[in-house]
Amino acid sequence: MKKNKFKSDILPILIGVLFVGALVGAVLFFANQSKEPAAIERVHAADDGELADYESDNTITLGDYKNVSSLATKEDLSEKNTDDPKVFLWDSYLETCKIKSYPKDMLDAAIIDQQVQMQGFAEASGMTVEELAESYGMDDSSIEEAAKDDVKGRLVAKTIALKENIKLTDDIYLKKLVEMMESDEKNPDLNTLEKDYIDTTSVRPKDDAYVQLVKDFLMEKWNEAN
After folding, report:
1. Which of 21-25, 32-36, 199-203 has the lowest mean pLDDT?
2. Which residues is 58 bridged to in the sheet?
3. Distance between CA atoms of residues 37 and 34, nearest Å
4. Model pTM?
5. Which of 18, 49, 85 lies closest to 222, judged by CA?
6. Is the separation of the CB atoms in 147 and 107 below 8 Å?
7. Residue 45: closest CA among 102, 120, 113
């Protein structure tokens, strides 16, 4: 009898322990799930500015950037056809490049960037993100495609910068941040501008600065040939 009584006493305790354990596990699981979107901190740059040859890494195939003059005529870059010749030339060149794979960290960051930019634009327009997305016919798929375009440009630009020994000094970086942020401050601070860019535009400001430098480089190539 004592043995049976022991079993009847201990069984509810064991069930209680298992229940509490399961409850704690569930709480921890959902707590971790809720933290996942904040894995990329927007208060710090995700990139370190180091260059890599993504062509040799079998990530991209570059087009012939040394003959970029063949991609656009003077008429193409005239004021009546484009208000930004560098962007026109850059977009034309990117079409000649192929992406074989997208580094996950860069793509994940670019998707978050797109979402943050949409949020900012929606707030400025007095709309919800859902209303904005609907008005532009955007969904998760189109957001990812836009993010892939951003990643492609960064991969191509950083590879060309490495091949052509294009350097991003602090002075040049500051200049490009001013251009990208369209800042009119008389004595801009590098750290402040970088933080503003990260908060509103992208967690990879140095990558984007390299894109601007390579746009300049390609435009110079085009001008030399024309």
Report:
1. 32-36
2. none
3. 7
4. 0.78
5. 85
6. yes
7. 113
Place of tokens 């969904």: 139
DSSP notation for the chain: -HHHHHHHHHHHHHHHHHHHHHHHHHHHHHHHHHHGGGSS-TTS-S-------TTTTTSEE---GGGGGGG--TTTTSTTT-S-HHHHHHHHHHTT-EES---HHHHHHHHHHHHHHHHHHHHHHT--HHHHHHHTT--HHHHHHHHHHHHHHHHHHHHHHHHTT----HHHHHHHHHHHHT---SS--HHHHHHHHHHHT-S-HHHHHHHHHHHHHHHHHHHHH-
1-10, 71-80, 94-103: the lowest-pLDDT one: 1-10
Is pLDDT of 94 > 90?
Answer: yes
Q: Is the pLDDT of residue 125 over 80?
A: no
